[in-house]
Automatic annotation (TrEMBL):
Top-level taxon in the UniProt lineage: Eukaryota
Membrane topology: Single-pass membrane protein
Source organism of the structure: Ceratitis capitata
Residue spans crossing the bilayer: 68-88
Protein name: NADH dehydrogenase [ubiquinone] 1 beta subcomplex subunit 4
Pfam families to which the protein is assigned, alphabetical: NDUF_B4
Family: Belongs to the complex I NDUFB4 subunit family.
């Protein structure tokens, strides 16, 4: 594990202190049994959660089509569907060819009318 410089250690220490302060404040507010008397209701507004939900909702507004996004969509959605459709078509065409040439008797067919 690489050794951290003094500036990095100081940054991590300040970040940990800020996180600890925010956690303590959140626990203090969430465990206040008299919060309903202040008119705030029973829920606590979490700014981080609100930002996360807003980001999830506005994700499509900020989407930029790129080559990487195209390849991901192509290989994850379009290509599997096309390969599966080709496999179904070739298998059914082969079975139909056997039926039409008489290689499979009518009584041995999987799907028949009678």
């Amino acid at each position: 594990m690489p050794e951290l410089s003094a500036a990095e250690k100081d940054f991590l220490r300040r970040k940990h202190e800020q996180t600890s302060k925010l956690r303590a404040e959140y626990l203090k507010q969430i465990s206040n049994p008299h919060r309903h008397a202040t008119g705030e209701g029973g829920t606590l507004f979490d700014a981080g959660l609100a930002r996360f939900q807003a980001m999830r909702v506005s994700n499509y507004e900020h989407f930029r089509p790129t080559g990487v996004a195209f390849r991901a969509g192509f290989f994850a959605v379009i290509l599997p569907i096309a390969v599966y459709a080709w496999a179904l078509k070739s298998e059914r065409d082969g079975r139909e060819q056997k039926y039409r040439t008489g290689q499979v008797a009518y009584k041995d067919r999987q799907f028949k009318f009678i």
